[in-house]
Design a protein that fits this description.
The protein is mainly β. The strands form 8 sheets. Strands 2-29-28-27 form a 4-stranded antiparallel β-sheet, with no helix packed on it. Strands 3-4-5-6 form a 4-stranded antiparallel β-sheet, with no helix packed on it. It has a 4-stranded antiparallel β-sheet with strand order 7-8-9-10, with no helix packed on it. A hairpin with a 3-residue loop joins β24 and β25. The protein starts with 14 loop residues before the first strand and ends in a 12-residue tail after the last strand.
Length: 458
């Protein structure tokens, strides 16, 4: 069935809930079962493999989009590509003249980017290992790099206190974002690519408009430098890890702290959301990795095995594995099963949490709404939802123009792949719209659902 291109003009009427007791979930449809992937038992995680090959600390690790490879950046100035299943080192990329702080795959998996203490960013061919471009422009160490979701742009954060946006094809610097008062340690794009977040030594997180470069919000709450930031898959929450030893979960729409997670005994170097947004992983100078339930906010597992500080942690694309990089020079792959090393489970002695909802969308904040929500909060929710409506319409138009083009070839694997990518983007945007309405309802703001949110894609 072809998706209609006609949009129903909706007027967002903001009303206050007379009683929040009628719908504790807030979104109206959150009690419905949603399709989910196979259950992953993070409490059963153990170390499955230890990858050795770097001659110095492992500063950054990342999975390829298909989950078959892992890339690592190290204090030995090199980047290594590993087979995620066998643990074999496939390639060593050499070219940086100093420590490699950050690595990331492009969304299509064909390229790798790296940021280094030589002040440069390099773009590599992920298949051949050849350096394609060197991006020069920062005046100090590059601490963090990331691709935009569509792969057309690269962002970088540096000790020169700036964030730079680059054209991923030409290598040209498009814009420099200034506003932090100290080193920028971590940068990331939102899932829709419309916003950028950054974490800094100035103890703040900033949210930037990815198109205009304008600073939209400054989040304050940490008491020491912010080392790592990441968006949830829906783009409505942010997590941050800090040298104050805590992880903070933020409402990305209004910039409010939802919860502070405490459990590490030292600096938190890296944080990551699971693909479905239900779990958080963190790693620390205390040599450990912790897995947290994003709904109950309790630590459900502590993974022990590294002998020194753990600098980087991330989930596999399917959420069934966690990979970590450490000062001890090793990379560890964690998952269910009998592994090579033991790990210890740690369940915090916190009050009984509320039941985990049946939905795939986390519900970590459920206070009684204020009787009169602030106008700025109301406006933020409306603006965010309308942005997603417009974004969804663009994806729908793209879908129609691609699949129903007279030149579309259903036998072409590349064209089918592109259509499937667009379909997934539509579903992700619809999920984000649902999350915005749920979050708004918890603050006493009712946003009527757009007809596009429930539209099916065939």
């Amino acid at each position: 069935m072809k998706i209609t291109k006609k949009i129903l003009l909706i007027t967002i009427l903001v009303t206050l809930f007379a009683s929040c007791g009628n719908s504790t979930e807030g979104g109206g449809n959150t009690n419905k079962k949603t399709e989910s992937s196979a259950i992953v038992y993070y409490t059963k995680f153990t170390c499955l493999k230890t990858l050795k090959g770097h001659s110095s600390s492992v500063k950054s690790i990342a999975y390829s989009p298909d989950g078959t490879k892992i890339v690592s950046g190290s204090g030995d100035y090199t980047i290594k590509i590993w087979d995620a299943n066998t643990g074999q080192c496939l390639k060593t990329l050499e070219g940086h003249e100093y420590i490699v702080n950050s690595v990331a795959y492009s969304p299509d998996g064909t390229k790798i980017i790296s940021g280094s203490n030589d002040d440069n960013i390099k773009i590599w061919d992920a298949n051949t290992g050849r350096c394609l471009k060197t991006l020069e422009g920062h005046s100090d160490w590059v601490k963090s790099v990331a691709y935009s979701p569509d792969g057309t742009k690269i962002i970088s954060g540096s000790l020169d206190k700036t964030i730079k946006i680059w054209d991923a094809n030409t290598g040209q610097c498009l814009e420099t974002l200034e506003g932090h008062e100290d080193y920028v340690n971590s940068v990331a794009y939102s899932s829709g690519g419309t916003e950028i977040i950054s974490g800094s030594d100035d103890e703040t997180i900033k949210i930037w408009d990815a198109n205009t470069g304008q600073c939209l919000k400054t989040l304050e709450g940490h008491t020491n430098k912010v080392c790592s930031v990441e968006y949830s898959s829906g783009g409505n929450r942010i997590i941050s890890g800090s040298y104050d030893g805590t992880i903070i979960i933020w409402n990305a729409i209004i910039g409010r702290c939802i919860k502070t997670l405490e459990g590490h005994s030292h600096f938190v170097h890296s944080v990551a959301y699971s693909p479905n947004g239900m779990y958080i992983a963190s790693c620390s100078e205390d040599d450990n990795i912790k897995i947290w339930d994003a709904n109950t906010r309790e630590c459900i597992k502590t993974l022990k095995g590294h002998s020194r500080a753990v600098y980087s942690v991330t989930f596999s694309p399917d959420g069934k594995k966690i990979v970590s990089g450490s000062y001890d020079g090793t990379i560890k792959i964690w998952g269910e099963g009998i592994g090579s090393e033991s790990s210890e489970q740690e369940r915090e002695t916190t009050p009984s949490p509320s039941p985990t909802p049946s939905s795939n969308y986390p519900t970590p904040y459920t206070p009684t709404p204020d009787p009169t929500p602030d106008a700025a909060i109301v406006s933020s929710y409306i603006r965010r939802y309308n942005t997603l409506v417009n974004q969804l319409q663009k994806w729908i138009d793209d879908y129609n123009n691609t699949k129903y083009s007279p030149y579309y070839d259903p036998k072409s694997s590349m064209e089918v792949y592109r259509v499937n990518q667009i379909k997934q983007a539509i579903r992700n945007t619809q999920n984000s719209m649902r999350e915005v309405r749920q979050e708004a309802a918890r603050d006493g703001v009712n946003i009527p659902m757009s007809s596009l949110e429930s539209m099916s894609v065939y």
